[in-house]
């Protein structure tokens, strides 16, 4: 069954000192448009993550986010004791050699020095942590795919309803078609007979009528449209990745409906064609969301 390009998936991994959050959102797009926001510690895995997303998701505007929530102990910025000690020794040496008074408030001076307050967010990623984080990424992808399938089922149901409506409208053309041909014959014949001064060859008139009626014949268009309707339903059942193909079929359906309208030459048929176009327009709008 078809899948929608609209989806959402999230997974959370809780470790001893942190919580890893993975979130994926997707909307419709002609191709795969992938953007990522990844915590610094995991940026080395960005290409691997991108390749996995591209392989599974195929199409859509996809936003991938991976961020880390640290524990309370990690929120406090640590003081780099080694750097403080180094600055203290250097200031003391300068005070002795240059005969400059020592600071009255050592902490105020030292804590202003560069790199004393440090917070190293980039830590080396272990294989064990990556294995667990990778499982969280896979879980988020699974949730997004499940969401897409659910949306795809809703789209398939709507498409089936619209196709059934167009098919019913197509079946309603037949009674008006025979009436239309007879009206054309009658209108042309009456017009000629009302013109008393015109003498015409009835055999030639019959030949011209046949030629004219053949040009207005819509049997081929009806058959092609019926075939496109069946093809659309069959394509939906072929599985995911059929969005572009369904779009092409919808375009072909539109061509046949337009030709029916141009050949109809009948008010009732024109109404039916307008209703068909309305149903098809709703299909075209939603088919843009199909992967």
UniProtKB/TrEMBL annotation:
Instruction: Write the record's keywords in alphabetical order, separated by commas.
Output: Endonuclease, Hydrolase, Nuclease
User: Which organism is this entry from?
Assistant: Bacteroides luti
Q: Which residues form the Endoribonuclease YicC-like C-terminal domain?
A: 176-290
* Molecular functions (GO terms): hydrolase activity; RNA endonuclease activity
Q: What is this protein called?
A: TIGR00255 family protein
**Family label:** Belongs to the YicC/YloC family.
| One family name in Pfam for this protein | YicC-like_C
The cofactor named in the record is: a divalent metal cation
Matches recorded under PANTHER family = UPF0701 PROTEIN YICC
Task: Tell me where in this chain the Endoribonuclease YicC-like N-terminal domain is found.
Answer: 2-156
- The UniProt entry's coiled-coil ranges are none
Question: Is the Cell membrane keyword given for this protein?
Answer: no
InterPro entries (alphabetical): YicC-like_C (IPR013551), YicC-like_N (IPR013527), YicC/YloC-like (IPR005229)
């Amino acid at each position: 069954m078809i899948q929608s390009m609209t989806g959402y998936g999230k997974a959370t991994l809780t470790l001893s000192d942190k919580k890893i959050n993975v979130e994926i959102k997707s909307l419709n797009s002609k191709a795969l448009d992938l953007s990522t926001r990844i915590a610094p510690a995991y940026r080395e895995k960005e290409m691997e993550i991108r390749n996995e997303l591209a392989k599974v998701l195929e199409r859509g505007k996809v936003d991938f986010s991976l961020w880390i929530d640290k524990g309370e102990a990690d929120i406090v910025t640590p003081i780099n004791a080694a750097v403080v000690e180094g600055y203290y020794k250097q200031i003391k040496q300068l005070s002795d050699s240059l005969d400059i008074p020592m600071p009255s408030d050592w902490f105020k001076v030292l804590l202003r020095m560069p790199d004393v307050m440090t917070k190293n967010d980039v830590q080396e990623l272990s294989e064990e942590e990556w294995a667990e984080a990778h499982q969280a990424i896979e879980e988020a992808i699974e949730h997004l795919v499940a969401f897409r399938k659910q949306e795809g089922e809703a789209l398939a149901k709507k498409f089936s309803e619209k196709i059934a409506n167009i098919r019913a409208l197509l079946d309603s053309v037949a009674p008006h078609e025979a009436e239309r041909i007879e009206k054309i014959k009658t209108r042309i014949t009456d017009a000629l007979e009302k013109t008393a001064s015109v003498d015409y060859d009835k055999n030639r008139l019959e030949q011209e009528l046949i030629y004219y009626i053949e040009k207005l014949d819509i049997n081929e268009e009806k058959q092609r449209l019926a075939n496109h309707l069946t093809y659309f339903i069959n394509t939906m059942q072929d599985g995911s990745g059929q969005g572009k193909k369904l779009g092409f079929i919808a375009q072909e359906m539109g061509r046949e409906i337009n030709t029916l309208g141009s050949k109809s030459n009948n008010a009732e048929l024109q109404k039916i064609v307008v209703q068909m176009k309305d149903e098809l327009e709703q299909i075209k709008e939603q088919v843009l969301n199909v992967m």
